[in-house]
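ok trying this again, last paste got cut off
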Amino acid sequence: MSVFHAGERAIQQRAGFGDAALTVGERFIRGVMPEQHQVFFAQLPFVVVGVLDAQGQARAGLLAGAPGFMNSPDDRHLDIQAGAVVGEGVAERLTPGAQIGLLGIEAHTRRRNRLNGLVADALDGRVSVRVTQSFGNCPKYIYPRRIEWAPIVAGVKRVVSGWDADARRMVAAADTFFIATAHPEAADASAAAHGVDVSHRGGEAGFVCIRDATLSVPDYPGNRFFNTLGNLELNPWAGLLFIDFEARSFLQLAVRARLEWLPPSQTESKGNNRVLHFDVLAAQRTEGVLPLVLAAQ
């Protein structure tokens, strides 16, 4: 079966890449993890995670721990002994058989690798993921910062719901966010391409434009796979995650996405002719529990 589903192929075709993306995808999207990916995940203090919540909405969060909390017993599995699950509605969805998307990102080296799969086992804080898709991403638009595991011993968790002024300020200041999306058949996926995916979006601070309860983001050129846009073509419901490492807080947004294709006269010098718009449906800001900090430069 193709490494891409119908939504991804539709975006690839409209973007003008024809079968070129398919040829590259079949070479680089694998059903197993290369050794360098196994080593990469093992050295990280966190991994971004995408899951489906009880309503079938994609939701983004983090799994975090001291480096080594992830390891690969073989090229088809990634075992995670999370020291912390970051994000409301994430931990309860890490159950056997659940679709899951993972993004390993090391900002100071600008490396990132994607892994999509199924939860093969979950017991006593340990999650084993069976790989269905594994592939690398280009280093573009990653703001370089070193992030370290630093658990909060006596923190007081505070969860604030609502698209309030503090939530808007966090989004307005961001140079990075993460987006979880899913194929409409992800809950009962029969094909590797029909799962949950989580990816990175980055730019200069302020690249997310806010108008009332709608966010707009330029879709900068990437690897031409269009995994995120392909999912949104078929299923517009998504989950966004913004992180403030200095304040040790994070913001989860449930959104409905729509893609705008710009005419050639409006195309910017960076070559992007698409804009993603997100209508904010729900917002949850969590303070006092992020077990990660920025390392001194």
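PB: full thing came through this time. The radius of gyration is 18 Å.
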